[in-house]
Amino acid sequence: MKVFGNGTLTITSVTEKDEGDYLCVARNKMGDDYVLLKVNVMTKAAKIDHKSLSDHKVSYGGELKVDCIASGLPNPEITWSLPDGTMVNSIPQSDNSGLRTKRYVMFDNGTLYLNEVGMREEGDYTCYAENEIGKDEMKVHIKVVVDAPIIRNSAYSVVKVPYGETAVLNCSAKGEPTPTITWTSPAHRAIVPVSDKYQIANDGTLHIHKIQRFDVGNYTCSARNVAGIDKKVVHVQVLVATPLINGIESSGIIRKTVVKDQRVLLDCKANGSPLPRIMWVFPNNIVLPAPYYGSRITVHRNGTLDIHAVRISDSVALLCIARNEGGEAKLQVQLEVIEGVEKPQLRNPPTESIQLTNGILTLNCSIEGKPMPEITWILPNGTSLLRGTTIFRFNHRLDGTLVIRDPSVSEVGRYRCVGRNSAGYVERTVTLESNRKPEITNKYSSLVSIINGENLHLNCLSGGHPLPKLTWTLPNGVVLTRPQTTGRYSVLNNGTLTVQRTSVYDRGMYLCQTTNEHGSSSLSVSVIVIAYPPRITKGPAPVTYSRPGVAVQLNCMPLATPKAEVVWEMPDGLQLKVGVQPRLYGNIYLHPQGSLVIQNPSNRDNGVYKCTAKNVVGSDSRSTYVYVF
After folding, report:
1. Measured between alpha carbons, how far is residue 305 from residues 262, 291, 333, 372 in Å?
2. Residue ranges of the Ig-like domain (predicted)?
3. Of 403, 430, 457, at which residue does a domain stop?
């Protein structure tokens, strides 16, 4: 208490004990005077306002923020009790306090805050408000929400991989928190994420390099987090290709006539998976493996038999065998060595024209000579067929005849039969003509969809001899003729229309039309161009709290077609553009996926940060207020 010269009485820090009657007396020689004052001390017990009555659910790894606003006279002191009994108040923790307590922050208004919530933060939290008059409490139950892992397309599946290739086993999972992906081999051993044999990508995909037969079996993908586990089994099969010799499967027989003292090369090129082992078998079961190097006879690594200065006694039957794990193929060569040579001669006219018919079409080519000429058919597209070879619907028989099964307009054109031996060369030409209108061999059974910005390819395959006229009519009515290029549009020689860098204005109906003297055919294709505006699926919270010096990340991940451009606007109005490479602007780090990281925040970084995603269709934005305390 203090009495001033003017008679004023001052009482500091009033309490209940100061309540009562106060008498002020004034006295001098002339007499006394007094006044009685009654003092009542106003008090109010501590009370928590707006008590939370329901449970709070917090995502695993998210932020926990619980308010506890209390009133009272004098102002109540607020403390929090954690699930493990630890007490937290607004007094800063000392350096030697527990790590658990340090993770919590209590603001001056009584709000309890924690980032990166884990399972141990689940439980009952109690807020206590107390002053000299009374106390109050509020209990809040915190439930940490987690989602057990779920593997997409988790059904048992079989993956077939060619021998020696790379097997790709997919395993993507969702869950909260993000599941950890591991793979187990058929031997029930954990697969190391990175090795010469295996590689596990960030999305959980397993790559098995140079697959062998011992890699066959069940591979198990496990997705784990604190909420549980999910598994997926993928069975890997290794495909082996039965050997082919010179493009022929199983057994084949060829005749080879050569002149005495010449060099002869007999091809035995084998394909298969794994690569076949090749050997040549001579009479009396003499076996020469590839490679083999003798004084007169050589077997090259590719299987070719090389005989120098052939003799009459070399007129024998030879057998080439190619073997691998998938089986074997054989090629029998009847080698004939003769004394003289004769130039190849045609038994048929050198030129002939025939009409296209249904069923089986036969093109004759009979050539004689010494040694026996090697006959090759050359198709209109330039493909060469040796004797005994079959490709698609074409079969070159051993007698030199070319057989075409179920020919169509696409097979119309000029066919060349070529006969060669050491003495010379002869050629016969057969022209296959069409008496039909042109056919378009490809069809479109549904809409063609393409993403905005990608290149569009529309096929209109129509052959013939002569080549029919072909045009494409665009949705805007423009007509292009084969071959032609106009701006972004091109019609290739094969009839394919290409549109570079499509946009939404390229949608609509495209019409291809082919015409010859017998009629015309058409093909219509409806094209849609896919594009949608950006939508930010993972953005920052409205308010982001951070401690000084503790890096804070602001997410901004948009979905858009075409890809959206992301720009961050700083509190001072500066705009930062996200690029394909990480960028650093002083204290600010920009991730290529759109996130912004304040690496060493301080109160100077407080303010509104705005993320905007934009493409040709539209835009989306998110804002957050960063508060560094």
Report:
1. 14, 10, 11, 19
2. 46-145, 149-234, 243-336, 344-431, 438-526, 534-627
3. 430
